[in-house]
Design a protein that fits this description.
The protein is built from 8 helices and no strands. The protein is an all-alpha fold. It has one domain.
């Protein structure tokens, strides 16, 4: 459980750092492009920002390909498509966090179970030996308490890592939502050359 927790924490920190770097690239390249398509092509393959931009462009250009879609106005259709893309990215950002939460909540109890089991066997051995002196009790009981300490050593980093990663996820999602909102305004305004003035502030 400890190895799994540390692995997830390192992977998530790497993914979030890459996302923050891509957000900075969006400010430098995407909004300076002559069109949304050109800006999208300037983003790296696999970037969540590129995925959102592709979803918005596709929704904007394929809205009238079927009669069912024609019943939905273009603004609503593009909004729904971009929101779905943001939700998909948000779901991906949550991967692994459930494991950290589970480890943080269950590890102390696993350690406590080990302690109880160790104390039981220590007391059983003492009863069989027929000696209940302090030196016979303290050693086995103290050794059994090590399991509780191990459980806490596993749980504390998992809980701290979970809370820290959730906070960083909120910052990343805020950047994604801001990008999606700006992209929606650009697509709906029909002006793909410039970023909206409100977004530039």
């Amino acid at each position: 459980m400890s190895m799994g927790s540390w692995y997830i924490m390192f992977v998530k920190v790497y993914e979030q750092t890459k996302l923050f770097r891509q957000a900075r690239d969006v400010q430098k390249s995407f909004w300076q492009a002559a069109s949304v398509t050109e800006g999208m092509n300037s983003l790296k393959e696999g970037s969540p920002f590129r995925y959102i931009a592709e979803s918005g462009i596709k929704a904007n250009s394929t809205h009238h390909e079927g009669k069912l879609l024609e019943q939905i106005d273009l603004n609503t259709w593009v909004t729904m498509s971009i929101q779905r893309a943001v939700d998909n990215v948000a779901s991906r950002l949550q991967d692994g966090l459930a494991f950290l939460a589970t480890v943080g909540s269950t590890s102390p109890f696993v350690g406590l179970f080990g302690t109880v089991w160790g104390i039981y066997h220590a007391l059983t051995a003492i009863g069989i030996a027929g000696q209940a002196s302090i030196d016979k009790v303290a050693g086995p009981v103290g050794e059994a308490l090590i399991m509780t300490a191990i459980g806490l050593a596993v749980a504390v980093p998992a809980v701290l890592g979970y809370n820290w990663l959730v906070r960083r996820n909120k910052v990343a999602l805020e950047q994604l939502r801001n990008f999606a909102a700006d992209l929606h305004m650009v697509l709906m305004s029909g002006n793909s050359a410039k970023r909206p003035a409100a977004a530039a502030r």
